[in-house]
Structure to design on (442 residues):
């Protein structure tokens, strides 16, 4: 009995031992499965974290590319970069958003008010001069007043054409610019207690230090009532020239409304292929001012002469048109322009956008141009009346549209060495943009 019990006990014990091994086996398998799951989870999290980090790096690199444009990143595709498609227009006058510079701290010597004269590009160049003068005299500049009494009679204020806040903040590291004078000084101006004068034309910066600065320190406010060509172009320190360029090509940004309409015009033109912008400076005011009457009949010559005498600030009254033409001071006529474009081997089927006001003589003077280059367009033919309704009777705003289209054109051809030709040429050179053909009077 005892042996039997012992034998059975061994069997039972063996069975328990086998069951124990089995249970241990099951427990081990569960442990292995748990460890495998944790390993997979870790691997997944490592992959996810690495992906996020890599994507963050790519986004940061793309941001750096937009701000500084290193060559190594120029060819990278990205949803954050502007498309290279011809229909995606990025105007050069819209710079990349960057942080505003810190305000420049200096002892303020007084306040400078300026009244610009002339057309859009003449005033634009003058604003650049006035910012440079204010900067180097350590004075506060009041936002320039635009010309409203010239031939164009445009009532636009500065903020109607240019992005005022961008103008002020982008230059805060150079000069303090106010939208208006402090109340006490503003009341003085309203009472007429202000020193007003036209500065001498083509003066260097020493003239403003020696003649204008003492007046500002004495009267606290000086009003410069003429601004065209008042600062010399050459022989100035490079810092002044660089500041002029910064103002012209970065700080003077057009309003969002003008920029958007400019994009629309460019997009319409791009849909039909490359285009040439022709600044055909053959408008009534230009011919009256210059006295250039080639191709005009007797009645038109008399009309232009009467107009010249009607504006007392146009100093030159008696003008020999033929002599002025020989000296090279007349714009090309529409007929001469057509011959010149043919000589330059311009494709007769190219779109030619006329960046100008109403051509003097109308369709009669444009006949030869239209026959040689049938694809002539203007903003008035590309846009509807509702699009341009806001800009009617605002010649400077219309000129701003032409300026934007000129910057983005494949070829730009001016027919007169005026302000528009100079500023567009400078802007395109600043941006290293496309072709620029220059034509001189024949």
């Amino acid at each position: 009995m005892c042996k039997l019990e012992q034998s059975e006990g061994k069997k039972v014990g063996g069975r328990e031992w086998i069951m124990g091994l089995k249970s241990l086996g099951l427990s081990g398998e569960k442990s292995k499965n748990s460890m495998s799951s944790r390993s997979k989870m870790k691997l997944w999290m490592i992959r996810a974290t690495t992906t996020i980090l890599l994507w963050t790096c790519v986004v940061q690199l793309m941001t750096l590319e937009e701000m500084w444009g290193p060559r190594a990143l120029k060819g990278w595709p990205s949803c954050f970069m502007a498309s290279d498609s011809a229909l995606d227009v990025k105007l050069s006058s819209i710079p990349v958003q960057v942080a505003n510079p810190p305000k420049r701290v200096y002892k303020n010597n007084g306040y400078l008010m300026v009244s610009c004269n002339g057309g859009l590009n003449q005033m634009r160049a003058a604003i650049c001069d006035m910012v440079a003068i204010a900067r180097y005299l350590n004075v506060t500049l009041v936002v320039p007043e635009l010309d409203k009494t010239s031939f164009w009679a445009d009532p636009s204020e500065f903020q109607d054409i240019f992005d005022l806040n961008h103008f002020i903040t982008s230059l805060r590291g150079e000069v303090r610019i106010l939208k208006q004078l402090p109340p006490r000084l503003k009341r003085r101006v309203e009472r007429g207690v202000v020193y007003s004068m036209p500065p001498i034309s083509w003066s260097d910066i020493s003239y403003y230090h020696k003649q204008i600065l003492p007046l500002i320190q004495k009267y606290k406010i000086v009003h410069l009532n003429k601004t065209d060509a008042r600062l010399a172009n050459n022989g100035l320190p490079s810092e002044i020239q660089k500041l002029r360029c910064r103002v012209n090509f970065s700080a003077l940004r057009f309003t969002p409304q003008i920029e958007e309409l400019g994009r629309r015009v460019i997009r319409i033109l791009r849909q039909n292929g490359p285009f040439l912008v022709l600044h055909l400076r053959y408008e009534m005011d230009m011919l009256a001012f210059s006295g250039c009457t080639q191709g005009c009949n007797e009645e038109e010559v008399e009309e232009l002469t009467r107009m010249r005498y009607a504006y007392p600030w146009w100093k030159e009254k008696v003008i020999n048109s033929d002599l002025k033409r020989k000296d090279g001071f007349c714009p090309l006529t529409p007929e001469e322009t057509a011959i010149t474009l043919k000589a330059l081997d311009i494709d007769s089927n190219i779109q030619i956008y006329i960046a100008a006001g109403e051509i003097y003589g109308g369709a009669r003077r444009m006949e030869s141009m239209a026959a040689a280059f049938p694809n002539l367009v203007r903003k008035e033919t590309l846009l509807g009346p509702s699009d341009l309704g806001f800009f009617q009777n605002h010649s400077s705003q219309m000129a701003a549209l032409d300026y934007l289209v000129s910057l983005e054109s494949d070829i730009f051809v001016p027919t007169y060495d005026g302000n528009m030709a100079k500023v567009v040429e400078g802007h395109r050179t600043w941006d290293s943009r496309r072709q620029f053909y220059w034509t001189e009077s024949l």
Q: What stands out?
A: The chain is about 50% helix and 5% strand. The two ends are 139 Å apart (CA to CA). Confidence is low (pLDDT under 50) at residues 1-27, 62-88. The longest strand covers residues 275-279.
